[in-house]
Automatic annotation (TrEMBL), chain A:
Domain ABC transporter: 4-234
Organism, scientific name: Marinospirillum alkaliphilum DSM 21637
Residues in the signal sequence: none
UniProt cross-references to SUPFAM superfamilies, sorted A to Z: P-loop containing nucleoside triphosphate hydrolases (SSF52540)
Protein name listed in UniProt: Putative ABC transport system ATP-binding protein
GO molecular function ontology, one term from the record: ATP hydrolysis activity
UniProtKB/TrEMBL annotation, chain B:
Gene Ontology biological process terms from the UniProt entry: lipoprotein localization to outer membrane
Keyword Lipoprotein carried by entry: yes
Residues spanning the membrane: 265-289, 310-335, 373-393
UniProt membrane topology term: Multi-pass membrane protein
Pfam families attached to this UniProt entry: FtsX (PF02687), MacB_PCD (PF12704)
Family: Belongs to the ABC-4 integral membrane protein family. LolC/E subfamily.
Protein name: ABC-type transport system, involved in lipoprotein release, permease component
Ranges of residues in domain MacB-like periplasmic core: 19-239
Primary residence: membrane
Gene Ontology cellular-component annotations: plasma membrane protein complex
Annotated localization: Cell membrane
Keywords: Cell membrane, Lipoprotein, Membrane, Transmembrane, Transmembrane helix
Length: 234, 406
């Protein structure tokens, strides 16, 4: 069964007098366990689409259904709570609170969810170990490399036990080695936790790691292909 | 949620220089403000107490016409009954009787108009502390025949020293002029220049004997346990003795009433100005801090931190920095005020001599009431909350989709 489906999803931005059609009538379905990449030239609507799927913004027309719930119909406050409990986010940057350590950043989302403190400690340490940062738990973001920061973001996204994780160009600021390492971790999470990942990217090497590639042009889906991912040679 | 508190606290110290400046500004503002409040309150309280002591007591009783006419023959009726009644009042602290008459004083050098007060030396010192204001000679010296006490300025003008003689001239109850010779016993200083130039004290029995055949009194001055009791006791006395006029200090002195009301107003204006400055300083800093963190606040909203918590975060940041600054400021102020209360603040060193001309002490003992301190603390907290409203509201207007975009 599909986790996410969109029906006639459109988004029009008003840039001055000219309307910008950032999404045009997108029909899309994402199944549980997918490892899907959204690609396309700059301005093609990747970020807009991910924001719609994550309930960060409202469509101009059309609907987004998650697990049989029309999230476009939720009230603002319900939508925030929905995001907290059901969706994981990894952004290109500004993922972490600079005044919190890696562990505190991961713990924070669990506290927001109302998790008990003693259970949080355990889980945070497991997750940070899983993303290879077991020894950097008490480091502040500025003491971590870009790649390490993104891995903390992955740990945090996973910590909240979401239905799926959205990542908008998670590797854009990373060198290719860190980018591949991040992909390794995401892939491992996808495999071991059956976590659904949807990520946008410009990077050909990242695209090759996906099992499904949705290509966007000018706000519409141009192609949607399932592919055999390139095995990563570490 | 303690984590929110931790986050807020660390956010406050993200820009240590900016926060330190704001914190110090709050602390110094509060310190200066509280100090000013305490000094002005101290000044007014002292002036109040002086006026009560030297002039009005808490309540005075006269013949109904005396205050307007000041005629010698308008002396108090039923003095014994009045005294007896007073002694039964639980509020009573001290009381004394005075003979009041206006006249002339004469020395070889000069003749001047004077207000002559005939007093009971023992009771007078307990009501007005007259004996503590001497700067020369002795208090109404019982060893002298007809001793007289006068203001230091008057003695200077008359060019007389203790032991030398002056002549007082006044009308008796039969409207005949009487002259009598007195020996200067001592001179007193007063905060009021007019008083120091025109008032003399003599023993009541001496004065009374010149005025009439029997002892007469014009004024009954009463000190109570607390100034606030003045009006109530005056009203009771008035009811028991309709043939006299009993007035509390509030009615006797417009200045005293003005002082108490003005003192409060002044305090709150001062505090208001400080709070206003605090509000704008806070607003400015919080707005800056919010705008600088657009991405971060957007991220928090995006991952699911609800608006109530985001609002709480910014409010907490405001409260934390304000509370830290205020705590420091209050501490400084209390230490400072305590120290000044022990040493006294000598305004004459700062050109405060002019104050003395108006009858104000130049050695001020600052006072700060705990009521005022508590009210200020609450108002500061309220200001911090109010100043946080707009920045917090601004943060809630963020569209997370926009805020997380690069
Ligand atoms: N707030 C906005 N107001 C007006 N136009 C917008 C707004 N946000 C996005 N757009 C426009 O919508 C279109 C799609 O933008 P979007 O950011 O989704 O593209 P993208 O594929 O993510 O591009 P990139 O690869 O550069 O990140 C672009 O033409 C963009 O200029
Ligand atoms: Mg984009």
């Amino acid at each position: 069964m599909a986790i996410i489906t969109t029906h006639g999803l459109s988004k029009v931005y008003q840039a001055g007098k000219v309307p910008v059609h950032a999404l045009r009538d997108v029909d899309l379905s994402i199944e549980e366990g997918e490892f899907t990449s959204i690609v396309g030239p700059s301005g093609s609507g990747k970020t807009t689409l991910l924001n719609q799927l994550g309930g960060l913004d409202r469509p101009s027309s059309g609907e987004v259904w998650v697990d049989g719930c029309n999230i476009s119909a939720l009230k603002d406050s319900q939508l925030i709570d929905y995001r907290l409990r059901h969706i994981g986010f990894i952004f290109q940057s500004y993922n972490l609170l600079p005044v919190f350590t890696a562990a505190e950043n991961v713990a924070f989302i669990l506290l927001l969810q109302g998790e008990k403190k003693d259970r949080i400690r355990q889980r945070v340490s497991e997750l940070l170990t899983e993303v290879g940062l077991g020894d950097r738990m008490d480091a502040r973001p500025r003491e971590l490399s870009g790649g390490q920061q993104q891995r903390v973001a992955v740990a945090r996204a996973l910590a909240s036990r979401p239905r799926f994780i959205l990542a908008d160009e998670p590797t854009a600021n990373l060198d290719s080695q860190s980018a591949m390492k991040l992909l390794d971790i995401m892939e491992k999470m996808n495999r071991e936790h059956r976590m659904t990942f949807i990520f946008s990217t410009h990077d050909q090497r990242v695209i090759e790691r996906a099992r499904r590639v949705i290509r966007m042009v000018d706000g519409a889906i141009e192609s949607d292909q399932v592919q055999q991912p390139e095995p990563h040679q570490a | 949620m303690t984590t929110l508190m931790l986050l807020a606290w660390r956010n406050v110290w993200r820009n240590p220089a900016r926060s330190a400046v704001l914190l110090l500004a709050i602390a110094l503002g509060l310190w200066a403000g509280l100090l000013m409040v305490a000094v002005s309150q101290g000044m007014l309280v002292q002036r109040f107490e002086r006026l009560i002591e030297q002039e009005f007591s808490h309540l005075q009783v006269h013949h109904p016409q005396f205050l307007t006419e000041r005629e010698v023959q308008d002396h108090l009726p039923d003095v014994a009954a009045l005294q007896h009644w007073l002694q039964q009042q639980p509020e009573l602290r001290e009381h004394t009787l005075r003979v009041l008459v206006d006249g002339m004083i004469q020395s070889p050098a000069l003749t001047a108009g004077v207000e002559i007060r005939g007093v009971d030396p023992q009771r007078e010192r307990r009501v007005s502390q007259l004996d503590t204001t001497l700067n020369q000679g002795k208090y109404l010296d019982a060893a002298l025949r007809n001793p007289i006490l006068m203001g230091a300025r008057l003695a200077e003008k008359l060019r007389v020293r203790p032991g030398q003689r002056v002549v007082l001239t006044f009308q008796d109850t039969r409207q005949e002029l009487v002259s009598a010779s007195f020996t200067l016993s001592g001179t007193f200083t007063s905060l009021s220049r007019a008083e120091e130039e025109s008032r003399v004290y003599v023993p009541a029995e001496v004065l009374s004997a010149y005025l009439a055949d029997q002892a007469i009194w014009h004024q009954l001055a009463v000190l109570l346990q607390h100034p606030d009791q003045g009006s109530a006791v005056a009203a009771r006395l008035q009811q028991a003795f309709p043939q006299v006029q009993a007035l509390a200090w509030l009615e006797l002195s417009p200045e005293l009433r003005f002082l108490t009301e003005m003192g409060d107003l002044l305090t709150w204006i001062l505090i208001g100005v400080i709070l206003l400055a605090l509000a704008f300083g806070l607003l400015n800093t919080l707005l800056m801090a919010t705008f600088e963190r657009t991405h971060e606040l957007g991220m928090l909203l995006a991952i699911g931190m609800n608006k109530r918590r985001v609002f709480g975060l910014i409010t907490l940041e405001s409260l934390l920095i304000t509370a830290s600054g205020a705590l420091l400021g209050v501490l400084l102020a209390l230490l400072n005020i305590n120290w000044l209360a022990r040493e006294g603040l000598d305004l004459s060193r700062f050109g405060g001599a002019a104050l003395a001309e108006f009858g104000y002490d130049t050695l001020i003992v600052p006072v700060l009431g705990s009521d005022e301190l508590l009210a200020v603390a609450l108002l500061v907290v309220l200001t911090a909350l109010l100043a946080a409203l707009y920045p917090a509201w601004k943060a809630l207007q963020l569209n997370p989709a926009q805020a997380v975009r690069n």
